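Why predict the complex rather than its parts? Because the way molecules touch one another can change local conformation, and only a joint prediction can capture that. The input here totals 382 residues.
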Amino acid sequence: MESQIELIYEEIRGRENAKLIHFIGDLDATNVETVLEKVINLFNDGIVKLVVDFKQLRYVNSTGLGILLHFSKSAKEKGGCFKIANINENVYEIIEIIGAASLLEIYDDLDEAVAAIE
Amino acid sequence: MPSTLKTDIEELTATPGVVVVRFQGSLESETISDIEKVFSRVQMGSSVFAVADMSSVNLISSAALGELMGARKRLIELGGDLVLAGVILEIRTKLNLMGASKIFKMFNDVRSAINAYKWETEKKSEQVELTFPSNLKMVPAVRQLISRIARQKGYGNRDSFRIETIVDEICNNAIEHGLNDSNLNIGIKVDIDPDKIEIDVTNISDPEKMFLLKTHLKPEEHQDIHNDEKRGRGLMLIKMLTDELTFNISEQGTVVHVKKVREE
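Output of the joint prediction:
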């Protein structure tokens, strides 16, 4: 069975081409394709400034981390951003071990991440 | 009607070092002296690992909880511990809210508590072996099972999470480097004791993909995380999270062996 993951979208008031996405569940090799498709669709619709809330993202593995790096790179190439907030300490450890903490834009909370959108 | 509390101490001859303290009634201000008395008897004996059987307790006040915490502290100073068993759901919820679940180890029943004590003290390992179809969709259930076993065996949240990650990455590797045939199985063998967990994952390897795996095993290939090869990242993660990692690659298949020492 695939791991469960749900993406809930929210508008960000006062920011154009932007969206807040809450990730809920586990992100791994069984569901990266689904998540990839959803985020690529947003990029294709011109939504390139993304803030993602990981408060309820319980788990991420190396495959999941791979697409997060991909989203970050793609968003920047399109003149946008991919900002991550509220990472739990277990998930953060994985990001740090891989050496991706310096490549991703990580914030302690949502307000800080939203305020950093240019 | 005044509160009543019955107490009883049972020393287990079959498990030296363990006593079961049975409570029946309410643990509150009026019965604190009974709690105090029973634990002073426990501390006088040679047995210092106490299991408080709470299955017939209908109330634990904050004052009584404080008394239990004091008893636990004294037992720990003597090299033992006090754990709670059989706490009814309503009280367990209240204890969680009071933060007591972070202090006391809690077990569903006395037997589980005694088994956990024996497992910790006798240092005997336990083995779990399973096979599953070589399909990525099977991995989440497997990794969560192994992680839950570790947690149940007393490994902390962080260790259990790391074990889940290790199992996930090794199994994904085994499937992606294995022959592309979902009729084939992946084998996983877990050997867990109070100090460490050892995991062996076996697959039937695809010779062409093995070349790729061997390339990844060269240390210099792990450094660039921009590398799009996702399995390279997975292997790096396994290396960083484990204390020992070996590969036994043969014509018959590959056995990946890892050892992770318990940290908490």
